[in-house]
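[job 4471] stage=fold_predict status=RUNNING
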Amino acid sequence: MKTTAAAAASSKYGTGKEALLRAAVGVVAAKGLRGLTYRSVAEAAGVNNTLVAHHFGSRDALIAAALDWAAEQSISSSRLREAADLGQPFTEALLDLLLSEPELQVFQYEMILEARRRPELAASVSALYDNYIEALADGLRASGLTHNVQVVARTLFASLDGLVLQYLAGVDREEIAASLEEVHQVLLLRTGAAT
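[job 4471] inference complete, writing C-alpha cells
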C-alpha cells in the first residue's frame, strides 16, 4: 500500500515512464545533477527504485531520456514553432513557457553545465539545441523567411536562451517581456513584415 506522501507524489507526476522522466527533471531542478539517483527519482514519483532501473537501465540513459523529454515538453508547451511564425503572439507565447514549467528550463541549464564536465552528455545537449533551433526554423519558414533560415533561427534562439537564463536568475518579468518584444521587432524587420 502506498503511503500518503507516495500517493501525492505519484499524482503530481502522473504514471508510467513519463512520470519517472518528469520526476527526474524535478529532482535535477531542485537538487542539481548530483542529487539525481534512482532512489530520489523513485521517491519523487512515488514508486520503487527498481522501476527506474527497469525502464532506463543506467543513470546516464535516464539523464539522456530526461533531457530529450524536457526539450520535447518545452518546445511543445511554448508553442515555439507558432511563436516564430510572426503572425502569432510572440512575447506572450514565450513568457508562457517560462511561467508554466520553469523546472524544465532549470533542468536543461543544469544539463548544459554538466555536459562541460561530462563530454558523454555533449551529444544530447547538442541535440537539445538542434531541436529548439529546428522548431524556430519551422516557424520562420511558415512566416515566409527563406534566406539564411538556420542562421536566423540560431541567432534568435541565442537571444531567447539568454533571456530565459536571465529570467530564471531573477530579472524582472517586465524587463524580459520588453526584451522579447524587441527580439520580435527585429525579426519583423528581418522578414520585411514590419509596418
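[job 4471] summary: The CA atoms of residues 141 and 149 lie 7 Å apart.
[job 4471] exit 0
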